[in-house]
């Protein structure tokens, strides 16, 4: 067995070894992997049940092996503890059992065609689990109807549970409680929870779930970390937070799943609009994503620890659940993972639901483009409500039906409570002139 040294550089980027000039090919009956690495921390290169030859020449490793997968493992768990008078954070880096896999070529994937199950059969299996994860694509109403169906099924079976929701941040838990107990109106709830600012998807997508919880006295638990913290971490990293901000984080932050990291970084690099400055901060964006997952897992764990007779149905985006990498692996309780309309992958979930698209009513839209920070019109869509109300590029929207609005979030809040085809009065400023128009 050969030993090499792999750099583990501790800085704002946390522990990560640098691999450069990575190339794979197949010739002379063997797979070949060549790469360069910095050399500081002991690690082991292994290839189980296969022959392996390692050649080092001018700092470049040339490894030939019979297998498709090479595993690099660290000799011991890498762990750092940060502490001060306010907080202690345990940060875990790659463990030996995780290692790092270099996949030289994709093996042939074989999936046994699954047996179709009824919805009730799935519920039978999930009924005795402490946690039922139900993933979603946020903008698909059919997914939310299935989530409601899971909630209704478990409630009808007499299961005691709370509903954990990614859509709300933990600082607004008291607002949720007040609404569920009829202490505030729906409009106050949406305003004080800053729903349209912090989540933004049409509230009609989630309203049937929240209505059912309210009618049946089922608790809703806000799972998510404050947006201000995730935004700051993605820009400056974990160690860019103040002591007071660090105190709001989960005590343990597990960054050890390198497979998950590689998947996330690939997604960030190819599927998101990434500026050059953001590309440089991919490690920080990864840390922010992990804090997102870790915080939601921490919220689940704390609730279940404090309420031993309760379970939780967790509603989150499917990306937090696939392969159990995001949240499920951080929750030590018995669980069922349900995804929706996803490709069948080995171990990706316990069940996958397939549904047809279903539409629901949506809040009225003006049909305008707006400046990000102000309600200044940048574009008016043809045949839109805005065109009917006489809006033009450069107009500043001031009021809807006499209610003042100062940003897009207040605008969305007011529009949500307008019924379809209900007349709307709009007040806007054009130059020095104040104009009020009605859609009647």
In short:
This protein has 440 residues and is an alpha/beta fold.
The CATH first-level class of the largest domain comes to Alpha Beta
Q: How does the major sheet shape up?
A: 6 strands, parallel
What is the total tally of β strands? 23
Average pLDDT score: 82
Shape: globular
CATH architecture of the largest domain: 3-Layer(aba) Sandwich
Ranges where pLDDT stays below 50 over 5 or more residues in a row are 1-17, 72-76, 95-99
| Number of structural units classed as domains | 3
Explain what the structure shows.
With 440 residues, the chain is of the alpha/beta class. The chain has three domains: 3-103, no CATH class; 119-226 and 286-353, Rossmann fold (3-Layer(aba) Sandwich), CATH 3.40.50.11550; 368-438, Pdz3 Domain (Roll), CATH 2.30.42. 28% of the residues lie in helices and 28% in strands. It contains 13 helices and 23 strands. The chain has a six-stranded parallel beta sheet with strand order 13-12-15-11-16-17, sandwiched between helices. A hairpin with a 4-residue loop joins strand 8 (79-83) and strand 9 (88-92). Helix 3 packs antiparallel against helix 4 and helix 9 (258-271) packs across helix 11 (282-306).
Key terms:
disordered N terminus, globular, 4-stranded antiparallel β-sheet, 440 residues, 6-stranded parallel β-sheet, 28% helix, Pdz3 Domain, alpha/beta, 3 domains, Rossmann fold, 13 helices, single chain
Secondary structure: elements and pairs:
Blueprint: E1 3-6, E2 19-27, E3 30-37, E4 41-46, E5 52-57, E6 60-65, E7 69-74, E8 79-83, E9 88-92, E10 100-103, H1 119-126, E11 131-136, H2 141-156, E12 161-169, H3 173-180, H4 186-192, H5 195-198, H6 207-215, E13 220-224, H7 227-236, H8 243-246, E14 252-254, H9 258-271, H10 276-280, H11 282-306, E15 311-317, E16 335-340, E17 351-353, E18 368-370, E19 377-380, H12 385-388, E20 396-400, E21 403-404, H13 408-416, E22 425-430, E23 433-438
Parallel strand pairs: 9-14, 11-15, 11-16, 12-13, 12-15, 16-17
Antiparallel strand pairs: 1-4, 2-3, 3-6, 4-7, 5-6, 7-10, 8-9, 18-19, 20-21, 20-22, 22-23
Helix pairs in contact: 3-4, 7-11, 9-11
């Amino acid at each position: 067995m050969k030993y090499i040294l792999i750099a583990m550089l501790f800085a704002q980027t946390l522990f990560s070894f640098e691999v450069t000039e990575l190339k794979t090919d197949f010739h002379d009956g063997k797979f070949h992997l060549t790469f360069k690495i910095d050399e500081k921390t002991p690690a082991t290169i292994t290839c189980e049940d296969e022959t392996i030859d390692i050649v080092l020449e001018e700092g470049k490793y040339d490894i030939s092996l019979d297998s498709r997968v090479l595993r690099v493992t660290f000799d011991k768990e890498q762990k750092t503890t940060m502490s001060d008078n306010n907080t202690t954070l345990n940060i875990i880096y790659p463990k030996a059992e995780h290692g790092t896999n270099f996949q030289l070529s994709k093996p042939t994937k074989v999936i046994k065609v699954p047996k179709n199950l009824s919805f009730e059969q799935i519920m039978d299996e999930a009924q005795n689990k402490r946690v039922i994860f139900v993933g979603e694509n946020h903008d698909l109403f059919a997914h939310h109807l299935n989530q409601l169906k899971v909630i209704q099924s478990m409630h009808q079976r007499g299961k005691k549970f709370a509903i954990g929701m990614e859509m709300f941040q933990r600082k607004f838990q008291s607002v949720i409680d007040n609404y569920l107990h009829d202490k505030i109106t729906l409009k106050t709830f949406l305003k004080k929870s800053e729903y349209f600012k912090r989540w933004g998807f049409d509230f009609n997508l989630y309203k049937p779930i929240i209505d059912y919880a309210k009618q049946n006295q089922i608790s809703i638990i806000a799972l998510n970390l404050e947006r201000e913290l995730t935004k700051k971490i993605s820009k400056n990293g974990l160690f860019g937070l103040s002591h007071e901000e660090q105190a709001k984080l989960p005590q343990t932050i597990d960054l050890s799943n390198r497979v998950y990291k590689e998947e996330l970084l690939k997604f960030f690099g190819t599927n998101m609009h990434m500026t050059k400055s953001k590309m440089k901060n991919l490690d920080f964006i990864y840390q922010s994503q992990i804090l997102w997952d870790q915080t939601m897992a921490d919220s689940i764990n704390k609730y279940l620890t404090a309420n031993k007779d309760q379970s939780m149905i967790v509603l989150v985006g499917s990306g937090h659940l696939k392969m159990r990498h995001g949240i499920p692996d951080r929750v030590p309780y018995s669980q069922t993972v349900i995804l929706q309309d996803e490709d069948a992958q080995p171990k990706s979930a316990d069940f996958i639901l397939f549904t047809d698209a279903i539409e629901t009513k949506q809040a009225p839209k003006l049909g305008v483009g707006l400046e990000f920070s102000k309600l200044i019109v940048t574009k008016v869509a043809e045949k839109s409500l805005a065109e009917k109300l006489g809006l033009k590029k450069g107009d500043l929207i001031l009021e809807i039906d006499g209610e003042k609005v100062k940003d897009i979030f207040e605008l969305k809040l007011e529009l949500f409570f307008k019924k379809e085809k209900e007349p709307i009065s709009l007040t806007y400023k054009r130059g020095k002139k104040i104009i009020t128009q009605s859609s009647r």
